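Per your request, structure below.
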């Protein structure tokens, strides 16, 4: 028994020796593939920004301040429709509500040891992909791991958006159109895996598509601005789905 205690002590001391530098470098390594993927997708987002009249600097600023592809695209949709700031803010808030849940989950993983300043900085750059790799870390979450991942992922997203807005119109029309479709491909890639695993999610996705189409052709509802259409559909469908099909908590035996 004494030997096992000594081995455990060595293991704990080894984990304790993993300082901030170790976690920062690990975050850099794990964030590099994310940065490469971000660059490709952000390039198509930059083309979309250019098409609605945003300058390359404006497009890059949006990616620097709002790290959310779906949220940015929703905001650009509202901008293109010519509606007001309130709709844009509400639309972005609702589309990005999932990051609130991700922040809560990572807060539990970080434990009480992480200070408030680190929590605020980490929460500023929580994306789906960074949340995924941070959740996979077996030890307590060190904020410098997220800092390392964000160091490479952030510029990948921002630079990709800038170059897309700058060079998108200079590319041949066929290539620009093909890259523009890639953004929709990313959205499809987000919903297909969970839809394949759950018939309920698959049904909700289908209902959302049908409802969105109906909102575009119905006489009265069709006159509502695009921003409020997104807000109404998101709140209505998500609310009904949460009410009818609540997620059951896992019980430990």
């Amino acid at each position: 028994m004494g030997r096992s205690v000594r081995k455990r002590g060595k293991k704990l001391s080894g984990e304790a020796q993993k300082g901030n530098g170790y976690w920062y470098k690990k975050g850099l390594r794990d964030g590099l593939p994310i940065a490469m993927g971000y660059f490709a997708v952000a390039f198509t987002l930059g083309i979309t920004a250019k098409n609605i009249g945003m300058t390359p600097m404006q497009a890059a600023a949006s990616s620097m301040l709002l790290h959310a592809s779906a949220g940015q695209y929703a905001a650009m949709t509202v901008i293109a429709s010519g509606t007001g700031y309130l709709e844009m803010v509400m639309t972005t808030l609702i589309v990005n509500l999932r990051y609130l849940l991700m922040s809560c989950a990572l807060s539990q993983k970080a434990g009480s040891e992480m200070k408030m300043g680190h929590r605020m900085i980490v929460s500023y750059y929580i994306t789906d992909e960074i949340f995924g790799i941070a959740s996979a870390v077996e030890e307590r979450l060190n904020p410098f791991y997220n800092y390392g991942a964000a160091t490479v992922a952030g510029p990948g997203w921002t630079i990709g958006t800038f170059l897309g807005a700058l060079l998108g119109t200079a590319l041949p029309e066929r290539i620009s159109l093909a890259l523009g479709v890639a953004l929709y491909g990313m959205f499809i890639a987000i919903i297909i895996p969970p839809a394949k695993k759950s018939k309920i999610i698959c049904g909700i996705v289908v209902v959302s598509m049908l409802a969105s189409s109906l909102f575009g052709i119905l006489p009265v509802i069709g006159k509502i601005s695009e921003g409020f259409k997104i807000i109404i559909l998101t709140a209505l469908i998500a609310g009904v789905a949460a009410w009818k099909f609540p997620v059951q908590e896992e019980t430990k035996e």
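The chain has twelve helices and no strands.

Regards,
D.
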